[in-house]
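User: Show me a protein chain along with its predicted structure.
Assistant: Here is one chain, sequence first, then structure tokens.
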Amino acid sequence: MKTRRELLQYAGAAFATLPFAKAFAQAKSSSLTLPGPIVVSTWNFGMQANEAAWKILGNGGHALDAVISGVAVPEADPKNTSVGYGGLPDRDGHVTLDACVMDENGNAGSVACVENIVHVAALARKVMEKTPHVMLVGEGAQQFGLANGFPKTNLLTPSSEKLWREWLKTAQYKPIANIENHDTIGMLALDSAGNLSGTCTTSGMAYKMHGRVGDSPLIGAGLYVDNEVGAATSTGVGEEVIKICGSHLVIEQMRAGRSPEEACRIAVERIVKKNPVKRDDLQVGFLALNKHGEHGAYCILKGFQYAVRSNSQNTLIDGKSHFA
């Protein structure tokens, strides 16, 4: 007669031969598999930015290191008139930069209205890591940057100055959708350890009032990261994003079970509902990445694109729009 232990061992062996036991084991193994590294960023210049980020992500690096490295590319590009060095100035001729960062632990750093420093996303990270504050602005942010080794640089390039002087002839402030108001690179990354981070950096709206700050450096508006759910960023007319706490809204919609694209659509529709008169010339776009590596975007007007880089993708995608 078999003992109780022998019977249990026999039953276990029999169970393991059943087809559904094999399927169960495969499902369990699949559920433990991380989605792998991925980085997404706003607009077509996100393609080059993603390549820089991928050098870190593809080698098992940290998501925060990747996004800071990635956005440094457009920040230093004098031909990019909406981010960093070469950005179009405000109406008084000052190039002022805004940026924020957020990591997987919910830590955040931000700077706004910064002059004479190119890499303000990296500066925002320094605020996060080396101060008890979340945000520094203006001269204080510049002073902190210089004290931490950031070189002082005149951000107004000859080409941007020429455009500004042409604008002064009429001084008409009317941003053109998808041109003058796609003023941001937002970048979100999920690393091989399954952790999320993001950053958002910009020179802001061209010919804005001196001292104007948009959504880009504001945690919850231009950027939000929740490591349990996902990450989101925005681009376009920042004033409208601020009014609805846009990126935080996207995260909460994903927390409720919606896909990244669906979550972005809900945020866009909320803005459209509040601005029925401006709908023909108002552009706002949201980009989101969830914990499973799924991504999606949605915008008000056709024309918003975002870049994706992963083990299986390296492409530019047209975001779906509320209006054609």
